Amino acid sequence: MAPRTFKKAIVAVSGTFPGYKQADLKTLVEGQGATFSSSVSQDCTHLVTTEKDVEKGGVKFKTACGISTCEVVNLAWLLESVEAKKPLPVKSYLFTNDSSSPVPQGNGDATAVKKEEKEVKKEKGGAKKRTHDDAIGANGAANGEDEDESKKMKDSQKASSKKLVVPLDEGCTLGYSVHIDDSGLIWDGTLNQTNAGQNNNKFYRIQLLVSPSSDYRTWTRWGRVGEPGQSAVLGSGGLNQAMKEFEKKFKDKTGLTWENRLNTPKDKKYAFLERNYEDSDDEEDNEDQVVKREEREEREETPVESALPQSIQNLMTFIFNQQHFVSAMEALSYDVKKMPLGKLSKRTLHDGYQILKDLSDLLANPGLANSKYGRTVPAAAEDLSNRYFTTIPHVFGRNRPPVLFHDKLIKKEVELLEALTDMGVTNAIMKDSKDVERERVHQLDLQYNSLGMEEMTPVEPSTAEFIELEQYLNHSRGATHNMSYKVINIFRIERPGETDRFSNSYGAIQNPNRRLLWHGSRSTNFGGILSQGLRIAPPEAPVNGYMFGKGVYFADMSSKSANYCCPYNSGNMGLLMLCDVELGDPMYEQEYANCNAAEDSKKEGKLATLGRGSSIPAGWKDAGSVHESLKGVTMPDVGMGSKNEQKGCSLMYNEYIVYDIAQIRQRYLFHVNMR
């Protein structure tokens, strides 16, 4: 529900508004007692934007669509709300994906919006609420029946503008472009087929191309994933003939008509991979921006300098390192050439999760092989694995694609889909920071600003705060972990809204139990983690892929979390986070894996699960010794070492799992050399 007073409103802004600078809008927002946010956080209540930004599918817009409590409105809402001295109902100001919707004019005096009058006439925001298709967004969360939701999602094959530049197949050297017809349909088909039994892992690419002289051809290329393959050019130059060649080839390979490309893939046929074209790097290369770039080059301006401290510049360079993205994807066998980061559609990610869930269900209940699939268990597992690798393209070289019939294999694929979600956010920030309209701000500063951090302060190495934190890092290494550290930098961090969310949800609970705990992840995931917070896997993800259910996992041993950083993919460097986590007392304690721990702990009225380890901290102390804001939070007293007193535990070290993101506050980020 939208807030009734400005005091409870958190407003973000996206896009360019004639007559207003961002600073002007910030003054308007804060002048009413509301909070102005430079990014769209989970607590954001309103995103004020433009039709152009909505059509473009900007990062902030996509993020807002994934937050059920965030309303996407036009500038008239803000201006008329300021005049009314209270947030007005948003119904008349909401945006919709349907650009043909009538333009709401709001209820205020026209003189109150004279600076916005021209822009309001352009905006076509209807009163239609955002659908689940929009809201599945950046955090990947989905509700309702999985298959129905997948069918409801927007067809990404439709271009929002004919100016969209669709990349040519990488093997095509013709000086043509991909055809977009009058309805906005993009004539581009990426097909994939995996069959473990026959050692097939192959692709087929079909594109309808047009030359500057209006010569139309159908381009095809096919082969084993990861290899160049063979190619052919079909057609005699006319559009109708090229369309017929395209449609015939598509049906021959998929068993489906081009019109029905989103239908369920046919057995033993290629599957159509839906792409997200709207984030294409080439899309922004329109004439206006080419002119701006040329003007900038003519001016030969002095390169702009970053206003960030050097340590934060180094951190941004590390988080947004393109080569690290490639290395991470190669380690997970993902085919980044066929589906570059940010190109997988929401529907494809959703379907990938759903197939992994089906595999997990089969693993837990082999009887489903006959009752649900009419196959033997091995045949059902192979069929589902084939479907998954057909949907989410992988590179296996000449090796046989695996059958995903083990928790560890399924967990690795869940990790891939989670990484694709976070890396997609990071990749979008990288792309957004290259926008030539903001050329007089350093790219690293734009990347940092896109994270929307409330605070990121380098901790001075000479301070007691730094020394305490470094000791916690170095002296909480497990005896079985061969890991050495060298701290590059430590940052005190805070995300906007997390403190209020934490206080409102858990600030007054009985028997609090707040601890300062570690969380590690690939460096390439941190664009998403910092900008959108730590998140819980979506409903369609398989619960069997998580030892203690779907939640956010923490440790009191730094090396346990460091193992998830995969520093070998990022130049032997990694990022570790310390979070203030409310666990409640007592916790739901488990000695062995329990993938139903999220539900079981809730039934017992517990806020968190403790997966008990056999080697644990020998003592705990108040973290106020690190920073006064941490008073009341406990952390291991590493000076006391560890003890091995717990018997019969399957884990070597403790794991802490929470199932509500409101229990988490990000407090410190460590940039570390790891070997």
Automatic annotation (TrEMBL):
Compartments where located: Nucleus
Keyword S-adenosyl-L-methionine: no
Coiled coil segments of this chain: none
UniProt feature, compositional bias: Acidic residues: 279-288
Name by which UniProt lists this protein: Poly [ADP-ribose] polymerase
Alphabetized UniProt keyword annotations: ADP-ribosylation, DNA-binding, Glycosyltransferase, Metal-binding, NAD, Nucleotidyltransferase, Nucleus, Repeat, Transferase, Zinc, Zinc-finger
Transferase among keywords: yes
Region feature (Disordered): 95-160, 276-307
